Amino acid sequence: MQYLQIDDHKIIFADYSLPSASDREEALRSGMSLIDACSLTMIEHSLRPEISLRQNLQEIRQQHPLFQKTLELEVLVSGNATLVPITEYEEQSKEAFFQCVFSESEKSKFRVFSQVLPMVRSVLVSGARESICQAIEEEFRGAAITYDSTLSALIRHFAPISDNKHRFRVFIHCRFHFVDIFIFDGRNLTMLTSYEVGSAMDVAYFVLAAVKMQGLPLKDIPYYVIGDATMGAEVLEAMKNFTTHCKFTTLVDEFGDRPLTTHPAVSYDLAVRILD
Length: 276
Description:
There is one protein chain. The chain is of the alpha/beta class. The protein has helices at residues 21-29, 34-37, 53-63, 94-101, 130-139, 150-158, 200-213, 229-239, 251-255, 259-262, 268-275; strands at residues 2-6, 10-17, 39-46, 72-77, 81-85, 110-117, 122-129, 144-149, 168-175, 178-185, 188-196, 223-227, 246-248. The chain contains 11 helices and 13 strands. The strands form 3 sheets. The chain has a 5-stranded mixed β-sheet with strand order 3-2-1-4-8. Strands 11-10-9-12-13 form a 5-stranded mixed β-sheet, sandwiched between helices. It has a 3-stranded antiparallel β-sheet with strand order 5-7-6, sandwiched between helices. A hairpin with a 2-residue loop joins strand 9 (168-175) and strand 10 (178-185). Helix 6 packs across helix 11 (268-275) and helix 7 (200-213) crosses helix 8 (229-239). The chain starts with a strand and ends with a helix.
């Protein structure tokens, strides 16, 4: 399977392929898991703003033959997304709902997607600019392309993580110039919000404001910091000024030491989407 993730400043291509039948048998005989036997190719490409997105994609594919014969491609969309209770969701109204929530969708056309998340009894409604979708589909003409929000994989991953001592949990996902905040009450996701940030103190401010908005005690609930390692370490230090129940967790901590969790180009949300 091949994956494509486009952020504001870079493109990540990933190919995570199952081994051949003979290699699978050898892996099982040696006690290796099939996940660890998969082959990983990861390409990180800085976006060149002076050329179009399609030209950026063409440059990568010309340099890496593996991505010239793509048959299946999953595009992971970062950006605007919101939750709708599953009992209130209407598929035919998702575009209107998205436009109502995100005013910028009135200025440029968005393609709207939905992902049912039964573990939190909600539907995640997200969108990507139509121009981006068209550039991808023109470049990968003939491939079977699907779209999913990066947030859906994170919600599925976070929902079962429990703390026997605490009913509420806060997950702080740090990414380039942004933070995603998830607040859970048991398995119920009571808040999902994202902010553009410039520093670790910005992150701490938005996290504490979200917790306070929910009417929760700031010091008595656990906070899990994940994502970008540099920002995560800084956020952990900033949060220590307000709580003692905060820890930073890496991909290796969660999934063990394997090629995907130690690759410098892989993002936390991409790894979770592949491994979970």
